Each structure stands twice: as C-alpha cells, then as structure tokens.
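R.M. (postdoc): so does anyone remember the format we settled on? I'll just put the structure tokens first.
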C-alpha cells in the first residue's frame, strides 16, 4: 500500500461507530461507563451506533467505490486489552486484522489512531499517574501486532480538545471543571505520545507516527500588542503544549512559568520529563480543521468555557456560541461577518489556509495530513433515504479550496480526510447531528447505508485532484 501518493479519504473513531460495545471479549471503556451512567442525561449511547463492527465490509467497499484511497479509524484500547492484566483479547485483534484485510483488498491506506477519547475503564481518567506507562504498553502491543500493515499511526486524537472537554467544559467524562486536572491530563498526554514514539522507534518499522491536533492556531482581528499577547496565551492553552513537545521535543519555559503563575501546582512533573520529550518526536502532523481560535484580550475578568456539544447546545440558533476565556490571558472574539453553524461554531473556510501556513511557520516542512474536516447538519432524507446535502458540499468545497491553496503555496500537505465516512455517534450530540458522506438509517432495523449527494460530489472531486 502506497502512502506516497496524495491520500484522499474519510475518518471515523471506534466508540463513535463500532457498536458491539461488549462483544467478543471487549472490556468497558470510560465512554461505555459514562453513557450507561445517570450523568448521561439523554440516555443516548454508542452501544450499537452504526454497527461498523458488523458492517465494515460494506463501509469500506463504499469508500473504495467513492475513489477514496485511505481510511482513518481508531482502535478501541479496551477491545485489545480489556482488563488491567495486560492479556491481549485475540478477538479484538482479529476484528482489526479483518478490517485492514478489507482496506488492503481495495488499496486503501489505513491511518490508525491509538486513542480517540475512549480509555479503558480500568485506566479511568487521563490524570491517572499510570496512564503513560499503560499507554506505552498498549502502543507496543499494537505496533508489534500490526507492524508495517499500518503505514500511518497516530497516538492521540486531539489532546487539547479532549482535555478541554474533560476538565474545562466538563461535558466529557469525568465531567470536571478543574484547571489543575486539565494540566495533569495535558502532561500525561504529552508523556503518552513520547513514550509511544519510543516504543515505535524500537521496532524500526517503515511506518510513520504522528499526533492529531484539533485546534487551529489562535488569531486576532487586530495586531496591537495586547491582542498579540492574547494570541500567545491562547496558543499556550490550545496548541503549544500539544505540538511543541510532539514535534520539536520541547516545552517553552515561558509557557511553564505562565502556568505556574496561574497557581497550578506542577509538583507532579517527573524530573526526566524534558529528556523524555526531547528524544521522542513524531514524523507527521495530523491536523483537524473545523474553525479558528479568534481571540482578544480578556477584559471580562472571567474564566469560562462553552463548546458546540454541551448539553444546552441543541442545534437551534439559540445554542450557546463556542467560546473560551481565561482571566488575564485571552477571551474569544466575535466577527459579526462570519457565519455560525447551528451549534454556535464559526464557519470560516480560510482557517484551513491560516492553520496550515502557520503550522509551517512554526514547525517547518513537517508532512501534514488533514485528518478531519466536516460539517454537522440535521440532514433530511427523501423516501429512498437519499440526502441532498448541498450545505455540506458547499462547506467542504470552500474549505478544500483554501487547503489546496496552502499546498500550492508550499505547505507539505499529504492527505485529506472528510469527517465522517458515514453517519455515526456525535459524542454529547447523539445521532441527530450528522457528518457522514453516507447516511445511516437508524430506524429501519438494518442500519441501511445510502450515499448522500456529498459522497458523489467528493468522488468526483477526488477524481479531479487525485494526482496533486
Ligand atoms: C472532532 C472529533 C470527532 C468528531 C468531530 C465532530 O473534534 O475528533 O470525534 O466528533 O469533532 O464533533 P462533534 O461530533 O462533537 O460535533
């Protein structure tokens, strides 16, 4: 399987699409526990979802028929290592082996994320001091088993967004608002990536290893010193702690001092931390592109966080706007000329260009894969299940133009993935907010798949740009 040509594909994540939550020896994950608990006010779960576990052959066939040559998916850690005894569940490996067989049959390059939000329940939380050693063990088991069959591995999906939802907004388990825990979580995630990279290098594989970043860089509407200071602090909070260690092997002293000045107790940091990150950096960046971080100086004096999938965001135009603010550091700005989606998030296609060119500015010529780009909608299907999702097509087309321009202007873009391959569970939003290129009928008892208009549009788009 060649990863040398430009990769065009789409993406999913294990908890969001597999279903089969307790089948064939899988252990419970923190998302199983959360969704089954009273903290889950909607009662909606990923227990079945679109049942990719049993439908993966048809899903991958449809990708191939849509000209896609790569599939980004994640492994469920608790399907592979269900208990804390380090014993592998062979049936877990068998599922992913068969899935990769199917990819190989069509020449589809697997791009595999080790953790996309769902830790095993025996790990519990990202603040567990054992998490990075356990993650390194899991990663080594995976690398040894799949080896070069997986050309692209990524360690963690969106460390920042994950930590942010867990410990700032509190809408993801363990549902806390606690900046001390946010920092402990962030620290452990940095170590997880470094320790997994260390295991990866031991095996001298031909594959590459990366990380997936969720946010774009911070930007402001003005470039006076106070605004640029706000940009710097927002980048500390959202970007630099993820990407500087992973790509450059460093964490700037100024960032560490700023965190201490916020009253965070950093006594949990291992004295060897700097050496561990210095020697274990990644090969490529996975960058998800949805919106920009538009900030200004914090004049409200408030620290507060909202997201596009908090319980109160119901997809009406009354939804809370996606914002974040940290007292003395920055707060989100609003550009009235920019449209918002129904979940209060900016639709700003140029952020694709800004993100990619700024990444190049800071991190040089590192290969970049756009590991997610997509548009959540309330899709309306006709009597045959067909969805004319022109809004999604417009969104993808506009974003892609800017992404391709960044490539033309010299950013080392190597691939692009639409979020998502088919409709699936949208975390706290449940199933009504859909992103798929393919519709899933959750009501008909068979989870029937029907390609949407955007699927056919993307198929033609890939044909046109396949040799870029
Ligand atoms: C990304 C996540 C995905 C996916 C997507 C859409 O941040 O990596 O897992 O869910 O966002 O987000 P949502 O489903 O919350 O609208």
């Amino acid at each position: 399987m060649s990863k040398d040509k430009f990769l065009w594909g789409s993406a999913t994540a294990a908890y969001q699409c597999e279903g089969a939550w307790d089948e064939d020896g899988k252990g419970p994950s923190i998302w199983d526990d959360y969704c089954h608990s009273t903290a889950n006010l909607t009662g909606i779960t990923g227990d079945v979802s679109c049942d990719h576990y049993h439908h993966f052959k048809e899903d991958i066939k449809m990708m191939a028929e849509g000209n896609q040559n790569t599939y980004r998916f994640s492994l469920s850690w608790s399907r592979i290592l269900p208990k804390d005894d380090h014993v592998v569940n062979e049936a877990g490996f068998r599922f992913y082996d068969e899935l990769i067989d199917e990819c190989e049959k069509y020449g589809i390059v697997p791009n595999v994320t080790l953790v996309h939000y769902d830790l095993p329940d025996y790990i519990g939380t990202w603040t567990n001091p054992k998490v990075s050693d356990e993650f390194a063990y899991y990663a080594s088991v995976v690398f040894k088993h799949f080896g070069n069959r997986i050309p692209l591995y990524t360690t963690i999906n969106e460390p920042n967004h994950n930590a942010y939802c867990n410990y700032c907004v509190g809408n993801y388990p363990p549902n806390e608002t606690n900046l001390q825990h946010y920092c402990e979580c962030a620290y452990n995630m940095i170590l997880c990536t470094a320790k997994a990279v260390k295991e990866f290098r031991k095996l001298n594989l031909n594959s590459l290893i990366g990380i997936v970043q969720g946010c774009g860089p911070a930007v402001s509407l003005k470039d006076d010193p106070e605004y640029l200071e706000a940009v710097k602090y927002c980048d500390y909070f959202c970007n630099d702690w993820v990407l500087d260690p992973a790509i450059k092997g460093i964490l700037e002293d100024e960032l560490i001092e700023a965190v201490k000045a916020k009253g965070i107790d950093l006594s949990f940091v291992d004295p060897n931390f700097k050496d561990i990150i210095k020697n274990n950096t990644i090969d490529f960046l996975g960058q998800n592109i949805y919106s920009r971080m538009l900030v200004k100086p914090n004049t409200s004096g408030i620290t507060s966080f909202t997201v596009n999938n908090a319980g109160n965001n119901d997809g009406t135009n009354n939804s809370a706007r996606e914002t974040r603010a940290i007292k003395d550091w920055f707060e989100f700005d609003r550009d009235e000329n920019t449209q918002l989606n129904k979940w209060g998030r900016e639709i700003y296609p140029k952020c694709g260009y800004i993100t990619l060119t700024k990444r190049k500015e800071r991190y040089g010529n590192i290969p970049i894969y756009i590991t997610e780009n997509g548009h959540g909608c309330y899709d309306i299907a006709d009597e045959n299940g067909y969805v004319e999702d022109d809004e999604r097509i417009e969104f993808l087309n506009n974003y892609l133009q800017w992404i391709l321009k960044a490539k033309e202007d010299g950013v080392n873009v190597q691939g692009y993935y639409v979020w998502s391959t088919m409709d699936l569970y949208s975390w706290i939003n449940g199933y009504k907010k859909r992103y798929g290129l393919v519709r899933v009928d959750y009501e008909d008892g068979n989870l029937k798949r029907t390609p949407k208009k955007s699927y056919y549009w993307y198929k033609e788009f890939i044909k046109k740009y396949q040799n870029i």
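R.M.: ...and that's the designed sequence above, right after the tokens. Also worth knowing: The chain has one domain: 7-217+272-290+347-465. The pocket of 6-O-phosphono-beta-D-galactopyranose is lined by residues 13, 16, 157-158, 161, 214, 288, 308-309, 372, 376, 419, 426-427, 429, 433 (CB under 6 Å).
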